[in-house]
Amino acid sequence: MTPADHSEVVALMASYFEGLYRADSTLLRDVFHPRLAYVCATEGDELYLDIDAYMARIDRREPPVKRGDPRDEAILEIAFGGDRIARITARMSMMGRDYLDYLTLVRHAGKWRIVSKTFSYIPRKD
After folding, report:
1. Cβ–Cβ contacts within 10 Å for residue 4, how many?
2. How many Cα atoms sit within 13 Å of 12 on the Cβ side?
3. C-alpha torsion angle, residues 122, 124, 48, 112 (rounded to 10)
4. Residues with Cβ < 8 Å from 96, sequence gap 6 or more?
5. pLDDT tens-place string over residues 65-121
6. Entry's Pfam families (predicted)?
7. Beta carbons within 8 Å of 26's beta carbon, 6+ residues apart
């Protein structure tokens, strides 16, 4: 892992958060690996999707930016396992929920990409 890798991953996460906030599947497809595994681990709402099914859901979603949701997101941890694998723990709040994401990244075509997204959520207490 180099400082450039760290910077690239931080920039990738900025695009990830922006894509989710704007419900922008074009931006998100550049963040995710083409063979993405998307897993919701919330009890009673377990879900397993590939990238096309997930992007179809994104395209049907009312963007949080249009709903007027405030931005509330953070990278909690970045861990590199070498020059081709990394793990990120992130949190964000949107659409009335608090999310905790575990993201696994790999190098794909010379760029860091999220190959798996496993997350859970709870209703936000306002």
Report:
1. 8
2. 26
3. -110
4. 123, 124
5. 999 999 999 999 999 999 999 999 999 999 889 999 999 999 999 999 999 999 999
6. Lumazine_bd_2
7. none
